[in-house]
Amino acid sequence: MRILVIGGSDAGISAALRARECDPASTVTMLVADAYPNFSICGIPYRLSGEVADWPDLAHRTTAEIVATGIDLRIDHTATAIDPARKTVTAVTPDSEVELEYDRLVIGTGAVPLLPPIAGLDALGPADGVHLLHTMDEARALDDDLRARDARRVVIIGAGYIGIEMAEALTNRGIGATVLERFDGVLPRTLDQQLADEISAELESHGVEVHCGTTVTEVRRDAGNLTVVAAEAKWAADAVLVVSGVAPNSALAATTGVRVDKRGAIVVDRQMRTNVPDVWAAGDCVHTHHALLDEPTYLPLGTTAHKQGRVAGENAAGGQKEFAGIVGTQVVRVFDRVVAATGLREVEAAGYSPLTVQTTADDHKRYYPGATPIQIRLTGDRDTGRLLGAQLVGTHGAEIAKRVDTYAVALQNGLSVEQLLDLDLSYTPPLGSPWDATQLAAQGWLAAR
Amino acid sequence: MRILVIGGSDAGISAALRARECDPASTVTMLVADAYPNFSICGIPYRLSGEVADWPDLAHRTTAEIVATGIDLRIDHTATAIDPARKTVTAVTPDSEVELEYDRLVIGTGAVPLLPPIAGLDALGPADGVHLLHTMDEARALDDDLRARDARRVVIIGAGYIGIEMAEALTNRGIGATVLERFDGVLPRTLDQQLADEISAELESHGVEVHCGTTVTEVRRDAGNLTVVAAEAKWAADAVLVVSGVAPNSALAATTGVRVDKRGAIVVDRQMRTNVPDVWAAGDCVHTHHALLDEPTYLPLGTTAHKQGRVAGENAAGGQKEFAGIVGTQVVRVFDRVVAATGLREVEAAGYSPLTVQTTADDHKRYYPGATPIQIRLTGDRDTGRLLGAQLVGTHGAEIAKRVDTYAVALQNGLSVEQLLDLDLSYTPPLGSPWDATQLAAQGWLAAR
Fold first, then answer.
1. Per CATH, is A2-111+247-316 categorized as 3.50.50.60?
2. Of B46, B399, B410, the CB nearest to A399
3. Which of B222, B293, B336, B337 is least surrounded by Cβ atoms within 10 Å, i.e. has the fewest?
4. How far is A55 from chain B (nearest CA, A)?
5. Which residues touch B400 (CB under 8 Å, ≥6 apart)?
6. Is A285 exposed, middle or buried (0-12, 13-18, 19+ CB in 10 A)?
7. Which residues in chain B are classed under CATH 3.50.50.60?
8. Distance from CA of B119 to the nearest CA of A (A)
9. Which secondary structure element, helix H or strand E, spans residue B438, and what is its range?
10. Per the database record, which ranges form the Pyridine nucleotide-disulphide oxidoreductase dimerisation domain (chains A, B) (predicted)?
């Protein structure tokens, strides 16, 4: 069996590895568009901050390790055409074009950065100090450019994960960061306003300038100076970083007859199978089954890409595995605080009668030194009592990342808020409470219902 | 409705508070045998270490806070007789005897320390430097005694939680600690030998002497000197701490016709109801429903006592709530490491075909500074694939306490080891991995099955 995988990031490598594992007799070829197979894109801000010493450190696996698994790795191979009738993929390399045959194909082409409708952006690029940040090449270009310009101030357009992580990274590097966000709070896809304000305050306390509810209308370059313009103000910058989200990279698939949804995400079934025979897809290029929603959603995350890729690879190798679906679990560290969320917020809970209650509870018994408050916004269904989602903000060290996981597992198993009180969670005074903070939030919700 | 609660620790206070909450018209009286209602017994080692500044800090709630909830609190009231026919409880105070009537009774008398069969122990007490450590009075007596003797070396008999926590507490206080354990490893009810050895090493690296597989045969006092004797050696000590586990404190209940099991634990149904009409029981004095075992077990823990007390209180007030059962989740910090466990170990998994696989995985992406390895022993059923239990050892700060909770929730929901891979857990490079360590352990188990 010849299995061909387009893409070598999280979904692609997971599919390739799993296919090899399930069918060691298969030939698995993996096409990677750049020279960075299986790199941790999520790690880019930590390399740019200087916390990670060198670019190759970001590789989940080295090229040698990938080759050792028996995968036929082709770097610098950009797929340009799929012929599902002949079962071939055409790819270009820096100096040639090749055609590859497949029996089974897995598409893991990822996402592309969104370019918001801002005047001037189209015409400006890295040479002008205006950067996107999605690939390793873009990251290295930004790094070089910041050094070349001896940048003192960078304006970041977009306060999602990457925007916030980059604000911290630049600050750690001694560069001033200004974050502009068109929604009313930072991390607008993750947090309600009440908690978003906490994170804005954290950023500001470390010297980051944050302006929410600010729609950038123009980026212009005059005599070597960059200016970012919104209705209420303008900001001078040595460099501008545009991190306003991503869209599925599905153009190649779509032109081949693979069905995509209105967002451009490839439509797959629970086996990660597309409408085209013998073609699977996974990762940031596909829509995603959400355990709490009737309709698929689009939420590109590395964790999901790994899981979907694994399912696609297993099935391409002859399996019948189903992707269990997500509940949208996320976490980000912001200086000394950690933000985590899972499930639905009220604004996302279409079809439910959501009620959200905010509670503050200590991470561990207050009598033991170092206890810190965790703010938890719990959303449940008023009618059925079902848990719908949770947002947490606490200090780094307060086990926020793994506390959100308790809620995530509860959500995936359809628990009610009241059933959270039945969970047999761990306790010792330096690390928790007899009723964990996650359960005290449930008690708060039940009292307010 | 007159609800009477015997006991003011975790189970008693939880029952009393919940009864008041469910039926604000009820009269709830709580008898507390000493002067310390609702104190955190689990916090005693941290007060003795000096980390917690003062004894009253250990109160979960102050007396004033308890009284403010409307509970009729009676401190220094030791219940001495229950008359289920007349529905009365007799209690003695330092200077009198009182009889109280009830409509509904909740027994939360807790546990008593086990005295191991060691020659000499019967005759020795705090005045001789030989201490138990279960009540606040015992804790304060130990504290005073260590100071009075200017103790330099304490021998601890028993390497369960309290023994280990006290070894750390004494070390922090500058007192040498020697731990003697008759089983082959420390924390013998929690950890397999492989991980227990890690914890012995951690203790030893901080100067604690640890001797496992050592059965103490005698404690003797000659001319003011204490000696602890085992077959292979003897140890001189300024004080001896006997922390060899506890047994249900059920004598009062048993003499009243309340049924107890062979361990002496009060027999209750899932509603925490005893065989005697209008009498419920909860906490360290009862046996406990275990979600993975056909038979009730005895595992006295504060978390369980809180949950059972809440159920008993709700039902005493007219409810029909069921206790969901435990999976045995536990955590303890040992100097710079954290030990956590949940579910069953192989030796406990009667009726299953257990397979245990040990994996080591980083707490977060290795490229980000400060990653530390977590050792995880995962036990699953070889035939069905069902998850049965997990033991974790990692560094303090690696979110071990809340990682075990992921397994706990999975166990309570009957997940298989393979389904752990479906869990949508949080990830950001400084705090996790795309496949969390808990999931990498599952992959390790599946590969070895």
1. yes
2. B399
3. B222
4. 10
5. B331, B338, B339, B340, B374, B392, B393, B394
6. buried
7. 2-42+54-109+247-316, 121-244, 330-448
8. 33
9. helix B437-448
10. 334-432
| Percent of chain A at pLDDT exceeding 70 | 100
* ipTM > 0.90 for the complex: yes
Q: What is the pLDDT of residues B163-199, one digit of tens each?
A: 999 999 999 999 999 999 999 999 999 999 999 999 9
Superfamily of domain B2-42+54-109+247-316: FAD/NAD(P)-binding domain (3.50.50.60)
Place of tokens 């005693």: B44
Domain limits, CATH 3.50.50.60, in chain A: 2-111+247-316, 121-244, 330-448
What's the topology of domain A121-244?
FAD/NAD(P)-binding domain (3.50.50)
B410 contacts A340? CB cut-off 8 A: no
pLDDT of residue A342: 98
A367 touches chain B (CB under 8 A): yes
pLDDT of residue A224: 80
Class level of CATH domain B330-448: alpha beta
Chain A contact for B425 (CB, 8 A cutoff):
yes
* SS3 per-residue string spanning chain A: CEEEEECCCHHHHHHHHHHHHHCCCCEEEEECCCCCCCECHHHHHHHHCCCCCCHHHHECCCHHHHHHCCCEEECCCEEEEEECCCCEEEEEECCEEEEEECCEEEECCCEEECCCCCECHHHCCHHHCEECCCCHHHHHHHHHHHHHCCCCEEEEECCCHHHHHHHHHHHHCCCEEEEEECCCCCCCCCCCHHHHHHHHHHHHHCCCEEEECCCEEEEEEECCEEEEEECCCEEEECEEEECCCEEECCHHHHHCCCCECCCCCECCCCCCECCCCCEEECCCCECECECCCCCCECCCCHHHHHHHHHHHHHHHCCCCCCCCCECCCEEEEECCEEEEEEECCHHHCCCCCEEEEEEEEECCCCCCCCCCEEEEEEEEECCCCEEEEEEEEEECCCCHHHHHHHHHHHHHCCCECHHHHHCCCCCCCCCCCCCCHHHHHHHHHHHHC
pLDDT band at B223 (very low <50, low <70, confident <90, very high): confident
A430 contacts chain B (CB < 8 A): yes
- Looking at residues B94-98, what average pLDDT do you find? 96
Q: Which residue has the higher pLDDT, A299 or B225?
A: A299
